[in-house]
């Protein structure tokens, strides 16, 4: 039995899907919490290279302890259906939480400008949030009740039914580590116009997305380019879009890459309590050492109260054995 300071703790891998700044007080507090969390972490998984860089800087973690694995999309759940599109109009779809970070202020101004310039433009907006009133105000002030539809919050299973009704997908986010919404939109065959922020430029190839600066004039220009391409029938075939997304972001590929990371973590040596305390000490939050020590003492108490050797250990799952048993049962 090792001494208390030599007691070895389990290995940990943490996924990180967010981008945070470094200037305001909330970001400083969040970054310090991240640094504490990653101090004893074996590995971290980010969804984009931009996210990785942000995590390395915020968490003060070695770059070789951070991997980049994007999110996956079920392309069978997000299939195109061009027959659902209106023939005499161009529908721009927005699926987003209606908050400042998602650029709702930009969306509101764009609605007013683009609807004034193009009479065939209609908006289909799914999502809810504290900024919804801004879109409602623009719709009422400009008299666009018949051209701007606010659907409110939707279940994820309902999103595809909205996307297939659109021609163009608009994303006005001010910060984004990856943006699943644009991948789901392309999987349904829409052309994407998006702000060029965070990890978004890494997600889709140039022929499937139009990237712009997060300003109203730039987004307006991007939408005009998309409308022109649509009128000239230069959009990529919706079903081809779906196949390309399936090739890049299928669950089998993403799960396999994640499994490689987990396997590498399991091969690393377990960290001792003394090592964990030293790592947390380097984060500069000394009181947190008391928390770690308290948790350790609680674990020791539970080990004494309910010894681990009395707890059933989960057996290793072997899919081949189960498949063989199923075949034998089917033969019987």
Briefly summarize what is shown.
With 332 residues, the chain is of the alpha/beta class. It has helices at 25-39, 49-59, 104-117, 132-142, 156-163, 180-187, 216-231, 238-248, 251-266, 273-282, 288-305, 319-331; strands at residues 8-9, 13-16, 43-46, 66-68, 90-95, 121-126, 148-152, 168-171, 191-195, 209-212, 271-272.
CATH architecture of the largest domain: 3-Layer(aba) Sandwich
- Helix content percent band: 40-55%
Oligomer: single chain
Low-confidence stretches: 1-8
For the termini, the CA-CA separation is 51 Å
The CATH superfamily of the largest domain turns out to be: Glycogen Phosphorylase B
Global morphology:
elongated
What is the number of E strands? 11
InterPro entries: Glyco_trans_1
Organism: Rhynchophorus ferrugineus (Red palm weevil)
Pfam family, one: Glycos_transf_1
GO molecular function: phosphatidylinositol N-acetylglucosaminyltransferase activity
Description:
By secondary structure, the protein is an alpha/beta fold. It has two domains: 4-70 and 254-311, no CATH class; 82-249, Rossmann fold, CATH 3.40.50. It has helices at 25-39, 49-59, 104-117, 132-142, 156-163, 180-187, 216-231, 238-248, 251-266, 273-282, 288-305, 319-331; strands at residues 8-9, 13-16, 43-46, 66-68, 90-95, 121-126, 148-152, 168-171, 191-195, 209-212, 271-272. The strands form three sheets. The chain has a six-stranded parallel β-sheet, with helices on both faces. A three-stranded parallel β-sheet has the order 2-3-4, with helices on both faces. Helix 6 links the parallel strand 8 and strand 9 (191-195). Helix 3 packs parallel to helix 4 and helix 3 (104-117) packs across helix 7 (216-231). The longest helix has 18 residues, at 288-305. It starts with 7 loop residues before the first strand and ends with a helix. The relative contact order is 0.14.
């Amino acid at each position: 039995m090792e001494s208390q300071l030599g007691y070895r703790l389990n290995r940990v891998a943490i996924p990180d899907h967010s981008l945070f700044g470094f200037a305001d007080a909330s970001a400083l507090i969040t970054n310090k919490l991240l640094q504490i969390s990653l101090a004893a972490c074996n590995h971290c998984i980010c969804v984009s290279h931009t996210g990785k860089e942000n995590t390395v800087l915020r968490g003060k973690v070695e770059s070789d302890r951070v991997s980049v694995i994007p999110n996956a999309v079920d392309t069978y759940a997000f299939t195109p259906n061009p027959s659902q599109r209106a023939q005499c109009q161009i529908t721009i779809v927005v699926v987003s939480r209606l908050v400042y970070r998602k650029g709702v202020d930009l969306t509101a101004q764009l609605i007013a400008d683009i609807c004034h310039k193009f009479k065939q433009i209609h908006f289909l907006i799914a999502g809810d949030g504290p900024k919804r009133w801004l879109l409602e105000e623009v719709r009422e002030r400009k008299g666009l009740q018949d051209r701007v539809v606010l659907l409110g919050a939707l279940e994820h299973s309902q999103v595809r039914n909205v996307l297939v009704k659109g021609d163009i997908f608009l994303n006005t986010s001010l910060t984004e580590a990856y943006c699943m919404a644009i991948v789901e939109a392309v999987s349904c065959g829409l052309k994407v116009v998006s702000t060029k922020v965070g990890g978004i430029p890494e997600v889709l190839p140039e022929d499937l997305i139009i990237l712009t600066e997060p300003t109203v004039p730039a987004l307006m220009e991007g939408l005009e380019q998309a409308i022109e391409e649509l009128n000239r029938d230069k959009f990529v075939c919706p079903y081809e879009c779906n196949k390309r997304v399936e090739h890049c972001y299928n669950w089998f590929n993403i799960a396999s890459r994640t499994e490689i990371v987990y396997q590498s973590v399991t091969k690393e040596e377990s960290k001792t309590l003394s090592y964990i305390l030293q790592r947390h000490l380097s984060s500069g939050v000394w009181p947190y050492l008391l928390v770690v020590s308290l948790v350790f003492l609680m674990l020791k108490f539970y080990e004494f109260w309910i010894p681990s050797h009395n707890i059933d250990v989960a057996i290793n799952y072997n899919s081949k054995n189960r498949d063989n048993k199923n075949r034998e049962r089917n033969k019987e």
